[in-house]
Structures are given as C-alpha cells and as structure tokens.
Amino acid sequence: MEPEFRAEVEALSQALDQLDYFGVLKLPQSAGMADVRAAYHRESRAYHPDRFAALPDEAVREQIGRIYRRINEAYTVLRDDAKRKKYLADISGPDRERKLRFTEVEEAEVKDAQKKKVEEQLGLTPNGRKFYAAALADIQAGRWEAAERNLKSALMYEPQNPKFKEQMALVEKNRPKVDFKIR
Amino acid sequence: MNDDLAVGIDLGTSYSAVACMQDGQPQVLPNEWGERTHASVVSFLEDATVLVGNNAKKNIITNAENTVYSAKRLIGRFYFSDEVKKAQAVMPYKIVEGPNNSVRLQVGQKIFAVPEISALVLKEMKAIAETALGREVKKAVVTCPAYFNDNQRQATKDAGRIAGLDVLRIINEPTAAALAYGFGKDIKQKICVYDLGGGTFDVSILEIGTDVFEVISTAGDTYLGGDDFDDRIMTWLADDFLHKHGLDLRQNKFCLQMLKEAGEKAKIDVGQFGAAAISVPGVCQSPEGEVLNLEMKLSADHFNKMVMDLVQRTFKVCDEALQSARLTAGDIDAVILVGGPTRLPIIRQSVKHYFQKDPMVGIDPDEVVALGASIQASALLNRDAAARGQASYLLDVTPLTLRVGTVGGYAEPIIDKNTPIPIEKSKTFTTSRDGQDRVLIRVYQGESKRAEECELLGEFEFTGFRIAYRGEVQIQVTFEIDSNGIVNVSAMDLETRQKASTTINLSSGLSEADILQAIDKNAEMELAGRAA
Fold first, then answer.
1. Distance (Å, rounded) from C-alpha B446 to C-alpha B427?
2. What confidence tier does B2 reach under pLDDT thresholds 50, 70, 90?
3. Reported pTM
4. Which residue among the candidates B72, B139, B267, B417 is catalytic per the annotation?
C-alpha cells in the first residue's frame, strides 16, 4: 500500500464522525440519484475491504472496514428519497452535530410520515376509508348519486378531510342537475 | 508459493463442485474419473471410511441408514423447525435432537452435527482439487444461497473450518454466478440471476459495470427446489400404486428411496426427451408374497401440470425482487439461469415468457457458481490486482431484515433487507430495574413483525456495565453484518465507553470447543478410495 493512501485512510478515519453522508461519499448536497450511485461505486473501488483482504496489518484493515461500513450507511440513506429528504433537513438544522448519522429515531420518523401521508390519501378512520373507497369506485363508474351518498357518509366520520371535500366538490359539479323526478 | 492458492467451492444441496483460477481463467476441477460435479452425499462404510460423491449416491438405496444426503436442507436449522420435521418423515437416516435445540444426525453409534457432514463433502472437494492441482489446498471461498440466514451462513463457515479449510469468504450463489458471467467482459447491464437449486430458490437483481457488481435486491425461498419437483412425481406414482395395489409405498423407507430415485430420473428424462418411461421392477412385495413392479409413463404435458404451481411460486419471488429493486421485468438486460432444474423446458419457457427474452445460453448452470467463487477466491488472495486495475468488486446486500425482540412478542427492525453489506447500526437500550446487572436481547431475522414468525439468531446477554438506578445506564448495542452476511453483536456502556461482555445463551451453532473437537474427528476420518 502506498504511503499516501495510508495517510488518507488515517485522516479519513479520524474525521469520519465529523462528516455527513454527503461528505462520506464526497458529493454536493444537490447530487442526483445517478451521481449518488456513481459516487458509491467510486468509493467502493477505493475502500472495498476485498481490496485489502490480503493485507497483514489488522489495524489498517479494521480502519478500512469502518470507513466502508460508513460508505454503505451513507449510500443506504442517500439512495432513498424519503430518507434523504429527512436527513437533509436534519443536517441543515440547528441539531446538525447530533444528526450526522441516521439513527433508528429518524428512521421511525420517516416511516410515520409515510404512514400519515397514506392515511391522508385514504382516510384516517376505517369507516371513512371504506365509504371513500366506495365513492371513488362510483365516480369511476359515473354513478354520481351513489358517489354523493358515500362521500356524505365518509365526511360524517372525517368532516375535516381535504381529500374527501375535494372529491365532494367534483361530484357536485358533475352530478346531473335534476330538480325532481318523474316516477 | 503454496500460500497464494485458493479454490472456489459450490456446496450444493444435491451436487457440489470445485473450481480454481488457472492462467487467468476460472476452471472447474474434475475428479480422477472426469466427473465435474459431485453428489453432496456422504456414505459411511463398514470399514470406517467415508464415501462422498456420485458413488456414495448409489448407496442411498443399498446402505440407506448410513448414507446422508441433502444435509444442506438441515444446516443451521433448529430442531423444532418445519424443515427438520419434514426431513424426519422422508429421510432414511436418523435425525435426532442435540443440545440447545440443535439438529444432530445419528449414523450407527456415531452422532454428527450437520456442519460435520457438510465438512466431509468439503473435504472431498478439497481432495479433488489437491489431486487435480497436485498441491495442497488450504484456502477457499464457499458459496451459499443468497437467502440463507445468519445461522445457516455461520454453520456453512463452520463446516469449512472443520474440513481444515481457511474460508476466505462466504459468497452468495447468484452473486457468484453473476461474477462468472461478467468476468472479463466490458459490459454495463442490469441482470437477473434465477437460481433454482436442489433445495433452494434465489433471485438476485444486479447492476454490473466494468469492475463493479452491485446487487440491487435479492429474494428467495429456502423451501423450494428441484427436490420438490421430484416429490410431485413421487406422490403421483405412490398414489397410483396405492390405487392399483392397495399398498402405500411411502410407508417403507426403502421403497420410498426407490420411488425418489425413479422420480428424479423421470424429471430429467421428461426435460431431455419430452416423456419418461418409469420402470422400477420389484419395488415391493404384496402381503401374499407377490413381487410387484412399478410401470408408468409420464408425458411432458402431465409433468408441467403437476409442477405448474411450483414454477409460479418462483415468479412470485421474482416479482418481489424486482419490486425491491424498483424495476420491471422489461428493464432487465440479461437473465442467467443457475442450477440443474433450470434445464427443464418448462422453466426455460416460463422464464422467457416472464422476462420477454431468452435466457442467456452458453452458461453451464451446474458449474457457473463454482467458477464465480474461484474468481472471488483469487481476487481475495491477490494483493496487486487492484493496483493493476484487474479487480472486481462485489457489492452485496443482506437478504433478510435484522430485528430485535421487544415486549409483547414483537420484533423491531434494525437493518432492513437489501441493505448493502458490510454495515453496522447501533441501538441504545436502558436498564428497567434498579441495580440491574445484565441486559438480555434476542436477535431475529425475517420479514414479520411478530418474533415467532422470524428466525431466531440467538439470545445475547450483556454484563459488566455500571450498576445504577433504572434508566441511568445506557447500553449501546451495535449490530454488524460483515461481508459474509454474518451478524456480530457487541455492546458498550455509553457513559464510560466500557465494552460490555457478551454471552450467547441460545444459538443453533457449534461452540468453539465443539468445532475444535469436530476438526480432530474430521481429520481422523478417511475418504474411501483415497490414500490419506
């Protein structure tokens, strides 16, 4: 191993805990998905433990192992849109020092946010979701009156749900205007 | 000079192979009779020697109780697992319970752990390589199915040690196949490896560049393989026989083995010739003493109907792998078939239909894994390949989510599946009682939130941290998955930075003392037909 590379490993392993994931992968924060992957491949070529498997010095192997594990960790977060967004917000905030590594707490927050988003899309209560789903099917089939009935029921369970209100407005616009029916 | 030699070994459920890099090209090493793949069958002979390979396979019927096959189905499993129960019903050899819910095999008066049996297969591979190369072989890369969990990987590694090999790395079979496919080619492709072996099924999606082999996702089923295709034919034969003669062939383990052999042969014939004539003269005797023969004809259509659901199950796994990779079947540039059963026309046609392209030809499905392993073996030994720009890097992933047990029987995820390895992740635990001096955690692998539906890897006990009021001591537990896919757990007192000592209470694996004992036992056993 060349002395320059040895010095690089030493410096990187000292600085590792002060670097954010962009720093680990030597990327700007604006990097796109293809850049992230390219950087990961580039860093893998440099620090992949297989390259150093035959190295007799165990301490250096352990240093390189630690660096490479961090490279993998960085890639895992930066390749995932939701995780990356959350991470970027974390390291741009006042708590940057504590947030350099993406821990289980952040992981849980991302999952909660995703779950909430899904719930907002589909309704927060079981009955609200049920009527909303039925209403969407009715709209698809052009059964406007049935859709209106189902949306009214859904709104009874979740009067504030913006999605429900939005669909209701759509139904009211499209529903054929009939004042009375002739039997 | 001896030092820089390492072989690649494909340790399969039904067949194994060994390969080595020679003059820059990976080559399969044949045995003295020119055989390139060897049955993973171990037969204990009366003269206390051990016969391994294709000749041992003949003993499954004649020396059934002393012949062990398909040991890979049992490796790294707990005694209470379903796979073990299933094996007990059909295997002619005795499967008994060992310490800590482990599995042991009884042959005559001797008791063997499963890795000890695999070690005998590895010992034979080592001997084949040594004869072919004319020098001692001490180092090897051994392959295992991508979907193997930590217990199974650890047991595979133990088997290598017992056989007297320095196991440089455990690599995944599909990854090895991809390496053999991409080796020396300057291509940039997304490929899918469809690996249907004797006992396991794996799918890996990889992106390969010039020198980087990145596994994007992997999925599998460790309960699905070519054996299940044989089983279908066996069941059909046995049901028909029961209907005709009122005798159930499955009741007798001797008849069952003949049936199994007939089933396997019929499968191969159907694949090769489009139909099979099954004939087992004297398969059993009626209570009246009449010798009965088994004569049947199996057409390709009938066979395809019998196994259709198994074939469809493989594509469910493909769906899963593609979904994890966020790709569709159309994004795949090349499909590589691995494993003997992929020779079946029904598999080739279904794969073609699913991916809308012909699978790659010119790749031997029985040899490609061993070839890939040998490439990796030589790369791990070579110190200047990287400097010369000749190295290739495997970027593999963990196939299963790593979890810790929490209250109420749940298992909380720590490291998600398809995360690149090696990787580490820490979690902080705190004491829940005043004066607590030990923390106990259970580690699982699996995709269910419920602990009981996941595979238990072990129970770890941490001691040696400060004794204080509850909640005052914070213990940081670090979970690491290494390049072999093997999990290591360590703990540290966060305040004092003192490492806590770890004991493993529950594990399917062998203790260090067991392994040392097994190494001696293995060294004493002589392989039949080979001068020690």
1. 18
2. very low
3. 0.85
4. B72
